[in-house]
Amino acid sequence: MLLIRGARDTDIENIRLIYNQGIEDRIATLEGATKDEAYMRNWFETHQGRYQILVAEANGEVVGWAAINPYSSRCAYDGVGDISVYIHRNWRGKGVGSQLLQKLEEAGKEYKFYKFVLFTFPFNKLGQGLYRKLGYREVGVFHNQGLLDGNFIDVMAMEKLL
Ligand SMILES: CC(C)(COP(=O)(O)OP(=O)(O)OC[C@H]1O[C@@H](n2cnc3c(N)ncnc32)[C@H](O)[C@@H]1OP(=O)(O)O)[C@@H](O)C(=O)NCCC(=O)NCCS
């Protein structure tokens, strides 16, 4: 039984552990270096108000998280949220990401976001499965958009009108 709830500062360490798994697995982000506690605390503190962080809890254990990040500092883009979703390695492919993202969309609508965007790797099969299932549209692929371990990586932009 999963519980989806707002993140508390006592969740920061578990959020960090799950984020670092995504970084180490080289399937989710162009971030190359794992994150320390200070980085994660600062990230948590910048995610207040409408920039929500949700966690998924199973049997009292945090097994995944999702967040709305600012897309742009320009006020014209105030209603566009950039999203992140990370699930613990042992819990991927079990429906946690779907439940988290659905709740994140509800939270986004409450806070007057009209669109979510995300940037993902075209080879991230589970990510593609999740986003397409929930109705995210492929906007396009940036070729050689970023460097990871010295190699160019393509990045796919996706969007959903909420
Ligand atoms: C990507 C991620 C967030 C998806 O969350 P998840 O909990 O694993 O996804 P779900 O179990 O909800 O699956 C979503 C859909 O993907 C599809 N899917 C499941 N397993 C799949 C697989 N092995 N290959 C392709 N598609 C798959 C299914 O359509 C599934 O929905 P369904 O089971 O109702 O049919 C998660 O796997 C993860 O954290 N990965 C590492 C970090 C990451 O890549 N984050 C995203 C950065 S863009």
Automatic annotation (TrEMBL):
Transmembrane segments: none annotated. NCBIfam families: resist_ArsN1a. InterPro entries: Acyl_CoA_acyltransferase, Bact_Acetyltransf, GNAT_dom. Pfam families: Acetyltransf_1. This is GNAT family N-acetyltransferase. The keyword Acyltransferase applies. GO terms for molecular function: acyltransferase activity, transferring groups other than amino-acyl groups. CDD domains: NAT_SF. Residues 2-162 form the N-acetyltransferase domain. Gene3D superfamilies: 3.40.630.30. Keywords: Acyltransferase, Transferase. The keyword Lipid metabolism does not apply.
